[in-house]
Amino acid sequence: MSDIIKQAYATYLDQLMRGATPIEAAKRARIKADCIDDFIRDAEVDPLFVEMRDATFKRLEPRKMWTPGLAVLQLVRLATNENERGMTRVAAIKELNVMLGYVELPEDDGAKRKSGRSLADFYADVAGSGAVPGVQHDVQRH
Length: 142
Description:
By secondary structure, the protein is mostly helical. The protein has helices at 3-17, 22-28, 36-45, 47-58, 62-65, 68-80, 86-99, 119-129, and strands at residues 103-104, 112-113.
């Protein structure tokens, strides 16, 4: 098999392990748009790819793949994505609040403040930052 195919499989597999969808992983492996579906189907049954995938699965280290920082990043993306359903966004916000220690969930599943800060404290911080609650602020992208 050609080195080009091996490299495409390696990149495709690496991107899958980083959480990309099969279509996005194939795009990142530089597969032409009109060939992506066939590439994905073929890869899943190609003995070389299956061997590469199985070897990768055996040496996976989940704690290195999924870090607290990555978890926060993904939740922030969900919470701020206007295309997500409202319930999804609220759930992401709640998870972030728990992860970051703003609330604590006792065994009875009720929520209580852990940080010692109130909602009034939060709004005071927002007012001091110049941010306007409920307004989407432009973020510089690099």
